Amino acid sequence: MEGGSPRTVAEELDAADPLAAFRERFVIDDPELIYLDGNSLGRLPAATPGRLREVVEQGWGGGLVRSWQGWIDWGARLGDRLAGHVLGARPGEVVVSDSTSVNLYKLAGAALDAAPGRGTVLVDAEDFPTDRYILQGLAQQRGLRLRRLPSDLDGGLDLDVLRGALDRDVALVVLSLVSYRSGALLDMARVEELARGVGARVLWDLSHAAGAVPVDLAGAGAELAVGCTYKYLNGGPGSPAFLYVRRDLQAVLRQPVWGWFGQREQFRMGPDYDPVPGIERFLVSTPALLSLAAIDPALDLVEEAGLARIRAKGLLLGRLADELADAWLAPLGFRAASPRPAERRGSHVSLYHPDAWRICQTLAADAKVVCDYRVPDRLRIGPSPLYTRFTEVWDALARIRDTVAGRAYTSRPAGLARVT
Ligand SMILES: Cc1ncc(COP(=O)(O)O)c(C=O)c1O
Q: Which of 290, 280, 282 has its CA nearest to residue 239?
């Protein structure tokens, strides 16, 4: 196969990479394995096992129940770290708790209850399934209409489609800032402006954006957001999610799960639910403390690197992937399935191929390239900037080229695995 930058170009980019040293602060068990799935589960920060051991042995083993005096505010403390360094929010506007799905349920429920005269909820028809399902359930329970906005699988939601669907019956719009499949990046400020024009609220899912692109919730006038910490934030499998509610709305909105962690003077154990006025009213229950503990060492790295530098490297990684995909993979039946240029998406890029699933399995089994597959026929490549080298992207694309050209993938089973 001809064309494509020579490997020396990737080597030069590595040599000039201001974030190169961060790779050493992650556990790289097998240096031969090219991991391009940081958009699903981020790598393990080297400091995390020690930190967890400390919390387990000293906090749990030594401190026992007394440790809760300090632990109890960790969700809010971590929320403030995220607010300041990752989300462009103010202190007291973000809290870490529960999962993205549960937080979405809580905030969507709160927003719908606060808009009693309105009967429509809008969602991107191609949004991540959990978001669509949760809204479907909420709409059904409340007798509302859920409108699924048609959206391009590769290009993302066209704002003219959103504009056309917005009217004074719309209570809530739920959108992902970065699309899970194509990586398409929306203009948050523009969406907020459109929704504000008809008095609708927007709830953002930032799962694929947080830690990959600079997010400016305050600057965009955003009111509500949720997102996970296990992708680009490297908090670990199933690590607790975050939720954001703009300060002026906190006392006005009431979420539907009335747990004791939202309660005023929680340990007075009063007879009736009476939530605190601040962000903690969106909490429900005892936090999964050991999972919360893994978020601290992960955020140390993101904060030190800074979102501006992470994004700058993410764009360069994305451009290299685009260029090599065009040169090497397009002649083999692949097609770009993400917006171009890289500025129009988050940190991952998708490629269409009719045999994407079998190719994905073969890459992991035979070529030591871990990326992932998304239905119907997309190979998703997520080079997380904190620990991915430019030469890894070059080598991975070369291995994909050789794997597909060799056609060994055709003997793989076509049926999907339990997890893709
Ligand atoms: C956009 C988006 N929302 C939500 C989730 C998952 O939510 P949960 O952590 O509740 O399973 C994902 C998982 O990949 C996602 O991509």
A: 290
